[in-house]
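Worked example 3. Consider a protein that binds zinc ion.
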Amino acid sequence: MTKKYRIKTSCPQCGCSEVAHLSEAEMKKRYGDVPNIELDCHECMMRMDADIEEDTGSDG
Ligand SMILES: [Zn+2]
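Given these inputs, the predicted complex is written out as structure tokens:
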């Protein structure tokens, strides 16, 4: 079984938010082994922090 993560972002500037689901392998491929992930807002290109949670698979 692969561990999965839920990455939540919310932009401090325009307030838009997004949730991405990635597997552990995809996480490492995209972001490396860093504990903190920063993403660019697709609306205003502002750099924003992401909250990473383990995805338990349940909808909630
Ligand atoms: Zn934004």
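Take a moment to read the result before moving on. The chain has one domain: 4-54. The chain has a mean pLDDT of 87.
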